[in-house]
Each structure stands twice: as structure tokens, then as C-alpha cells.
Amino acid sequence: MRVEHMVKFLVKGFLNLVGFFAPIFQMLVYRCLPKKRVKISELNEWDAQKYRFILVYVGFATAIDDFAKDFLRDFKSRGAYVVFVTNNPAFKQSGDASAWMDVFIDNGNQGWDFAQYKTATAYLVKRLGAKVPSKIVYANDSIFYIKRDKSAFVDRLLNESFDFVGAFEISGIARYSPWHVSGWLYSVSRELFLSDQFQNFWLRYLPIKNKRHAIRKGEHKLTQAALSFSGKYDVIYSNAYLIESLKRSVENRGQLEASELISSSFHDLWEQKFWRGMEGDGVIPFVTENLYRFSPLHVFLMLLLIDEGFPFIKKDLFWLNSVTYDKLVELDKVLRVISSDDVARKIKAFFLRKGRITEADLKTRFLVHVGLR
Description:
alpha/beta; Spore Coat Polysaccharide Biosynthesis Protein SpsA, Chain A; 2 domains; two-stranded antiparallel ribbon; 11 strands
């Protein structure tokens, strides 16, 4: 056993070392190579009288799927001018592209979501400057957008009382993953957008294709830049909101049944301690104290879908083992009730086709661990 533990320790140490140096090497290479040319197509002219806000939307797939179209349709109905950015060289615009986007940017296969945000931000600064509208929303297609009423959610994003609005907050571990706002959907005010803090952040951000870099130098640093601006911020599904939702569920269902609505990995960890008598106070204090270990969107998904009318599902939910096969069956049943059989079938098929990281080959797991996939 000691030898086995030692081998695991050494392997983990090696992977962490590679993961640490990989983005550094990529940054050096990026600085040395000639920069790729960005292609921009303006499909619809900006009109301050017609459009209420700007939506920067990042697409990674080869086309805009039905989920993304529903999301873009909802936002355009609220007055969004859509700047669509892709890093996928195989992306093909459909004949009705101008119905879903107003500006198309081909970013030349650079980086992940924050690389696309950077390019779109530079375009907006050059194109509109101080004439940008009062709100700019940033979003990417790492989420399935379920066709449910999003009006309250969008209202919070567009609330002009706040300079920075995020969907979720991640408490994290300070030395590794400090408190930050998730980067898949957030909004900024005109004042924050034009501020030195915000613009300097984008100038310093290097658009390399490494997910660790996108989180640490993207999400973490963006949050720091936004908070250093003397404005107000809001988190729609804050940890406090999620804990209150769990409390209501415990009151209505009882502790054990309510605990079944949190993610499998979190539930199993709590249940082991509960049955051993180590968590006499129950699931709520346990979740409160241990939420920093997990993504809140993964932990509370089923609870949010069933009780809070939540309209989003993370595409890496099954891949990252936050949902087991039996929970996937339950999710499928819930989606057939709150949405449709077709939506449930498409999401389940996507999860099963992508698989789980624990079942992937060694090469894939290595690339994921160091941020290259």
C-alpha cells in the first residue's frame, strides 16, 4: 500500500508540475509567433435607437445549435446587439446568420472563451468607444440553455444599479482558487467597461489555448479587476441564495430526500459522514462548510431545475463526474417534465457521446489535467 500511495503521489506531483509549466511555455510561444489575423463581418449596423445592450457570445461548435438559438432569440428580443465570436475554424454561417448575430468574428483558433471575449472587447472599443450602451453581457456556449422563462434572470443581468453581475460565485481555496465569479455568463456596466481596470485586464491577458490559464488568468483576474473598480456587484445565484434554496427543500422534503437533489459526489461525501454520526447537524452546515470544494452549478443543478425554474445545464456536468449514470436517468426524467422529450433526448445523447473523464484514455486525461483540452 505504501508503494501504491507513493506512486500516486509522484504521478500527481508530475502532472501538477506539467500543468503549472504548460501555460508558461505556451505564453512564451505565443509571444514569439506571428499573430493570427482576425476576420470581422458586420452583418447589421449598430443603431443606438434600436439596440438596448450588447451581447458578446462565444461559440465553440461548428454551427449554432437549437439551444444557442433559443438563448440568442431571448436576448435579441430584449434588444441585444449580438457580437458572435468563434475560435472554431470549421464554423459555418447559415443563410439566416443575421437573424442570430449582428457581428461575426472569426478569431483564428485562438484560446478558450476569454480569448474570444478579449477580441470582442477590442472590437467594441475600436468600433464604439465611449458610445457603448449602458450594459455589455458576455456569454459562451458551454451551457445548454433550456427554453424556460429567463426574464427575471435577464433583468438581473441588465440591472443598471450594478457594474458587475455574475451568474454564480465560486468560493474556492484562497491559495489555489480564490473567490471569483464564473465566466460563462456575466455583465458589466459602461463605466466598468471603459475603466482602466477593465481595459488593462484585457491588454494583459494572453489568449493561449489552456483552460487552467483561462480560469486563473481569466476568471480570477477579471473578478479582481472588476472589484478594484469602485462600483457595485451582484451575483444572481449566490452561495447564500443556494443555501436558502436547500433549506427550503429540507423543510419541504426532509433532510435525506432533499440531499438527493445535490450532486452525487457531494451527496455521497455527506452521506458517509451522516451515517457515521459525524454530521449530526445535517446536510445544510455540511454543504455550507464544504461548498468551496465543488462548482455550485454542479452541486445544486437538480435542486435549481426542480425548485427554482433554472434554465441552464453545464455541458461538462457528466464529463466531470458530477452526475452518475443513475442520476443521468433522473435528470432525463426531470427534463421531460420541465422541457420536452426532444430536449431531454438531445442532452442525454450529448452526455453519453462525450462520456466521463474517468473513462477516457490516458492521453485525454493527461491533456485535460494540464489544461490543453
